[in-house]
Amino acid sequence: MENSSSVSKIAIVIVVVGVLIAAFFGYRYVSGGDVVDVTMRVKKMTWRWDPDNVVVPANKKIRIHIFNEDDFLHGFGVAALGIDAETPPLKETVVTLPPMQPGEYPFHCSVICGEGHATQEGKIVVQ
Questions:
Q1: Domain residues of the chain, as ranges?
Q2: Alpha helices, DSSP H, located in the chain
Q3: For strand 35-43 and strand 48-50, is the pairing parallel, antiparallel, or unpaired?
Q4: What are the beta bridge partners of residue 106?
C-alpha cells in the first residue's frame, strides 16, 4: 500500500513539472521585473525571423535570445538603437536592448548572408 502511494506522489510531481515546463516554453516572452526575456530564432534556410514582429512593454529592458538554425552567420541589427550583433550558426545569442518608448523599431539581418538577406527583417513593437 505504501509503495503505490509513493508511486502516485512521484507521478503527480512529474506531471506538475511537465506542465510547468510546457507553460514556460509556450510563451514568446517572460516578464521578470524590469527585464523582459524574448525568444526568437533565425529559421533554417528561409532568411526569416521567427517571430518577425515582437511585441514588448515600454520602459523595460529587453533581453532577446536568438537561436540561429542556419549553418552560416547572420546578424541582428536595430539601427535606431545602435544595436548590431552577430548570430553565429547553430548557437544562441543574447542581445540586450535598453528600455524603449512606445513605437516601432525595425530590425534586420546585419550580415550579408545569402539570397534572402535583403528581405530578412522585422520589427519590435513597444506598447
A1: 29-126
A2: 2-26
A3: antiparallel
A4: 123
Instruction: Give the phi and the psi of residue 25 in degrees, each rounded to 5.
Output: -80, -10
CA 58/CA 90 separation, integer angstroms? 31
**Distance between CA atoms of 78 and 101, rounded to whole angstroms?**
15
Task: Render pLDDT for 47-93 as a digit per residue (tens, 0 to 9).
Answer: 999 999 999 999 999 999 999 999 999 999 999 999 999 999 999 99
Q: For the structural domain made of 29-126, what CATH number should be given? A: 2.60.40.420
Cell of 39: 525568444
pLDDT in tens, 80-101: 999 999 999 999 999 999 999 9
Cα separation, 45 vs 34, whole angstroms:
35
